Amino acid sequence: MRSRTFWVLDDEDEAVVDDLAVGLGRTPARVLAYLLLRAEREDDPARTIQLQVGTELSRSPISDAVARLEDDELVERSTVDTDATGRPPSAWTPATDLDTSRRRVYDCHAETLLERAEAIFGRCSDTDSATGDERSGSELAVALNWHPNGLHVPFYAAVETGWYDEYGIEVELDHRAGSRRAVDAVDAGDADVGVAGAATVLRARAAGVPVVPIAVLYQRAMAVLYSTREAFGTELRSVDQLRGRRIGMPARSETGVLGRLFVSQAALGDDLEITATAGEERAALLSGEADVVTGSITDPRQLERQGETVDTLFPTDHFPIYGPTIVARESALRERRSALASFLAGTVGGWIEATDDADRAAERIADRGDDEPDRVRETFERAVEEFGHSDDSRERGWGWQREQTWNRLRTALEQGELLATDP
User: Fold this and answer.
1) Where does the SsuA/THI5-like domain lie (predicted)?
2) Residue 86 pLDDT class (50, 70, 90 cuts)
3) 111-218+321-415 matches 223-317 in fold
4) pTM of the full predicted structure?
5) Rounded Cα gap, residues 65 and 24, in angstroms
6) DSSP label of 221
């Protein structure tokens, strides 16, 4: 009996797979990683049987993966001479080395994300014209959605590790007081790109603001409803416990809109009292003005550090909603497409750098904000683990968005009378 030996991917190779998966998705990334690493050991091209054994994938997903990799010019197909009759079998080699392949993966993914945005939201109209000061083709102003914090780590990581430089783009990070302010900055032309919650984006578009999401930064919204054991009187474990309670939430912020959406979807509107809050929601909780308040994932942790016992409900456990998204003006997809693609490609690199080691970015954020580096890093790591991924992003790469998810959110906002003309 004749035996054959094939080289296979192992645990030590997963870092390479991860680097590529952020721009390709897991399956094609595994195939490309195998071909790249195998090429360092063997000279002959890999046939399908070698890909099957080496990647532990079946024939069908391998066929789909190599077709996509060929389209992106990441691998090259050839044929193998054999003694058998019939069509010679195909085999593949990587088109270039690992570093160049990774750069091209991120580049191609950025363009795919822009095409995806156009497919979902339509191409921009000629009536939308840029406003504000025109920046050079290599400069990009980014309006972030809050003060410096752990959710912004990927952008800072891209700056600190040179990924934006790699794609020839100079990025200025500017912090705004909420998603709506970030959208306003993009609309006014004060920023080229903004970071804003999904509900805020849809409300702005409904009000005629010509912005379009070009990528999803985190796949799930991080809004929470929370209370202290002292304020609520018992452990908060279920939605039904909210009946007859006072819920504090800001009127127009992303968390406030999502809180109202949650109340609407849970059919609780007539069974509780919504209290409009000004400033930090937790102040209303601690003062006794509210029994439960809305917030972000970091808010309960801050109270826990003060010795409080805090219970939390996650609206996205009941209704899937995208988290912070990256938005641009519609006209920028036409007028500044190259700069947007460079920004997205650099951000993809920043994402993988941050998930590998967030220290440098965390220190930079701590210098500009109020949190210590350890807390910045902890916030980011938790956000990635619990809110950063979806089946779509695992199979298609970071930033992926689906039309159905946007349509569900739009319909829910309409049903809750939250898709107002005033964003």
Assistant:
1) 152-361
2) low
3) yes
4) 0.92
5) 9
6) -
